[in-house]
Design a protein that fits this description.
Order of helices and strands: HHHHHHH
Structural class: mainly alpha
Strand content: under 5%
Number of strands: 0
Organism: Nitrosospira multiformis (strain ATCC 25196 / NCIMB 11849 / C 71)
Number of domains: 1
Helix content: over 70%
Protein name: Inner membrane protein
Number of helices: 7
Keywords: Membrane, Transmembrane, Transmembrane helix
Oligomer: single chain
Largest sheet: none
InterPro entries: DedA_domain (IPR051311)
């Protein structure tokens, strides 16, 4: 796979991994950085952007849910993420990268109509930090 195709696969994998679909973008990041170590910052940036966009798609789903019953159904009956977002606001989206709970936080933030700009910024910082730690470990 050439460099551009590798980066496209990484972006796509990162986007899908942040939605309610399962995915392993970390493995794709590992593959890209192993094959093309010179793409370190490009890979880190695209993985972070793709994962943030995927998280924002979950936020958009939350915007579309009409009532709390629909929200709880979408969240699998768990109220923990909703409580956290109500209590801490957009800074809790620093944890949007955490498997399972991250999806819940993103959907809950949308449903609660938390400001999308602050949501996206906190989400992006958290996701970038996670990929940066992974990429740094790979580069050792």
């Amino acid at each position: 796979m050439d460099e551009q195709s590798s980066l496209l696969a990484l972006f796509t994998s990162s986007f899908l991994a942040a939605t309610l679909l399962p995915g392993g973008s970390e493995a794709v990041l590992f593959g890209v950085l192993t094959a093309y170590p010179e793409l370190y910052w490009s890979a880190l940036g695209l993985a972070s952007i793709g994962n943030t966009m995927g998280g924002m798609s979950s936020y958009a789903i939350g915007l579309l849910l009409p009532d709390e019953k629909s929200l709880l159904k979408r969240l699998g009956g768990s109220t923990r993420g909703l409580i956290w977002v109500r209590k801490y606001g957009s800074p809790v989206l620093l944890l949007a990268w955490v498997p399972i709970i991250g999806d819940v936080l993103c959907v809950a933030a949308g449903w609660l109509r938390i400001n999308w700009i602050s949501t996206m910024l906190f989400m992006a910082v958290g996701k970038f930090a996670r990929y940066w730690v992974i990429a740094a470990a790979i580069s050792l």
